[in-house]
Hints:
By secondary structure, the protein is mainly α. It has 18 helices and 3 strands.
Amino acid sequence: STQYEMKSLESIGLLKMDFLGLKNLSVIDGAVAIIRERHDPEFDITKIPIDDPKTYELLARAKTNGVFQLESTGMKEILKNLEPESFTDIIALLALYRPGPLGSGMVEDFVRRKKGEAKITYDHPSLEPILKETYGIILYQEQVMQIAQVLADYSLGEADLLRRAMGKKIASEMDQQRARFEEGAAKKNVAKEQAAFIFDLVAKFAGYGFNKSHGAAYALVAYQTAYLKANYPVEFLAASMTYDMANTDKLNVFKEDAALHGIPTLSPDINASEAAFSVEDTASGLAIRYALGAVKNVGVHAMEELTAERVKGGRFRDLGDFARRMDPRAINKRTLE
Length: 337
């Protein structure tokens, strides 16, 4: 057998890696392909500016249907309140939108501090460089580790053990860590009472702590999809609709979204549509042409053969021409109907 229980592998020092598939990566890939074909052959999603004003305007207005991690109703409400202005704000947003922070009042406190409606304080001067980007709030597991390093002279390995102990909340481990924290803080000339207070503060927030590196990876995909929607809405929506072409409810959401952007969705046309959703030039501007593959009961593979024949032999003149040219094994009676 090649499958072992996770903890057993960790106990013998092997690295456990999780590989997750994200549909949004396929959407990004599809949108980029259309952009390269229609606008810029050299377009590179990894080289977009991280401070694009149009992207942050879209986020602040919560126009985020199709944007990774940011399209739920609850997330849209926080977006409107928080009005993210930087990439670090997006990371924080993803860390905040979890049951613990949502139920603790942390989100509201974070928003007030960001907007200057609440005072930002630090319980020790050495905490400011660590907590400045989160407005004085301990939000990430990495911050817990940094505080232990800076304030109590922990090594990185010791700081990671502290993080794990605080996550488990085992009393005996916490007592050991408290003694170690206060001892290290004393060497840094931090008073015992202040060290104890900061340890309790860190322990309180550690339960809500989010892995910043995980948040940054997710925030990057969120930003990339938001950037595409803000700057290339037609291409992004066409790619999004292609990925969800079997989901009628989702297609309706995207069609409504397109209409709000002034982008019409053209009806499927045997001589104009592709198997996937495509971008088309019209007299009034760009439009999305409905995919043949999204028509019920026809099948994407059959529509790919249809479009390939159209490229090869030109437009279909009439039903007879269509019937003569198409392989009946690909386009059967049900598909034709």
